[in-house]
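Supplementary Methods. Inverse-folding protocol.

Structures were first reduced to a discrete structure-token string of length 406. This string, shown here, constituted the complete conditioning input.
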């Protein structure tokens, strides 16, 4: 039987897709701005943003037009050749950040893989062949390649695949004393998310990040910021590190970089980059003209004072609504995060029902995320309107009342 639009259903997923996901029972087919429609025509307010990816909403007209124009020019040339969109995007990223050099890939995991390889390669080739230790944090998440999932501090994602990459140490997040206890002259890098996303939307404190910078300087280690989720305006700055005068040596970004088109980047300084040479690392699709052209359009829109200031206004709208909802239903113990990466931690009596909260929210027309085991995560478009926020929150109020039986 041939596949047609009429028999492409959610049930087909269970027959043909590797069983590593458990997607919602509805199938989205169209999106515009912060609204999505499924196969039945039902409308949803999107508070999930494709896990902080669709930073400009669905089908932003500038991104659509950019992709259309580039699709009629050049799709792919590989790393054997360079291309204009990649060069323009790299220049815009370096001009907007601390970095001098950029490496393009296709996902956050690939950007982090490149960052961790660079950190070890730089340290072992310029300082000491024994300088290989990487310090990372419990509940961190850095991707699903074997190296990145091992650096990530969640064994549930890395166990069961045989021997893991060695010389990676995990300590508690926001615990500077724990870092001091394990850092030494063999440490090549400390890897940290400014806000742990999958770990429960847990922000790093300024004292913690400043202490990490000082320890890296003291031990000739590199400070690696994983901004896959916090980058591209998500926190109200182009990158989260820009809220403080604490500059990393390597930064990774993905998710919102392409506004929904797969692309990632690793940024670093000239001093560190020059340790590499042709052939040391690579990727076939990285720097793809289609992806880079869309990402260039996205950064042009996002790296704008008015838009970035609007992120904080939208943060306030959402938090105020969540606080009012909590005053009525008493379901959260705290609401935390920065910009439009917000986590609402469920009270202990509801923490085991997080999947139910998300499922019932969908039934009431709201797309929502989890973060960790007991946190509801909000990562909507940076352009989401106040009307969409209010309607989405009104729908959530009804959904939560249903879950807790009020």
């Amino acid at each position: 039987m041939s596949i047609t639009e009429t028999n492409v259903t959610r049930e087909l997923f269970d027959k043909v897709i590797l069983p590593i996901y458990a997607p919602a029972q509805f199938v989205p087919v169209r999106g515009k701005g912060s609204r999505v429609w499924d196969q039945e025509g039902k409308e949803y307010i999107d508070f999930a943003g494709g896990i902080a990816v669709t930073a400009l909403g669905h089908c932003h007209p500038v991104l659509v037009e950019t992709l259309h124009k580039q699709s009629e020019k050049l799709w792919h040339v590989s790393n054997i050749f360079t291309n204009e969109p990649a060069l323009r995007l790299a220049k815009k990223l370096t001009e907007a950040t601390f970095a001098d050099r950029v490496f393009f890939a296709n996902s956050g995991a690939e950007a982090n893989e490149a960052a961790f390889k660079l950190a070890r390669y730089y340290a072992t080739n310029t300082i000491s062949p024994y300088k290989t230790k990487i310090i990372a944090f419990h509940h961190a998440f850095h991707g699903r390649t074997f190296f990145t999932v091992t650096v990530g501090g969640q064994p549930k994602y890395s166990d069961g695949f045989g021997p893991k990459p060695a010389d990676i140490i995990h300590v508690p997040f926001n615990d500077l004393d724990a870092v001091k206890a394990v850092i030494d002259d063999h440490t090549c890098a400390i890897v940290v998310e400014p806000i742990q996303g999958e770990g429960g939307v847990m922000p790093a404190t300024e004292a913690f990040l400043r202490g990490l910078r000082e320890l890296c300087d003291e031990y000739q280690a590199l400070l690696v910021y994983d901004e896959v989720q916090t980058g591209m305006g998500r926190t109200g700055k182009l990158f989260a590190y820009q809220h403080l005068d604490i500059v990393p040596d390597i930064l990774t970004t993905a998710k919102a970089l392409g506004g929904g088109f797969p692309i990632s980047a690793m940024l670093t300084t000239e001093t560190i980059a020059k340790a590499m040479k042709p052939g040391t690392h690579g990727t076939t699709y990285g720097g793809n003209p289609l992806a880079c052209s869309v990402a260039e359009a996205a950064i042009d829109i996002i790296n704008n004072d008015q838009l970035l200031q609007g992120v904080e206004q939208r943060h306030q709208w959402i938090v105020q609504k969540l606080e009012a909802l909590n005053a009525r239903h008493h379901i959260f113990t705290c609401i935390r995060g920065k910009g439009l990466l917000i986590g609402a931690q469920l009270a202990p009596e509801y923490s085991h029902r997080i999947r139910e909260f998300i499922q019932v929210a969908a039934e009431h027309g709201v797309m929502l995320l989890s973060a960790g085991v007991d946190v509801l995560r909000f990562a909507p478009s940076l352009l989401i309107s106040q009307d969409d926020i209010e309607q989405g929150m009104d729908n959530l109020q009804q959904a939560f009342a249903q879950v807790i039986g009020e």
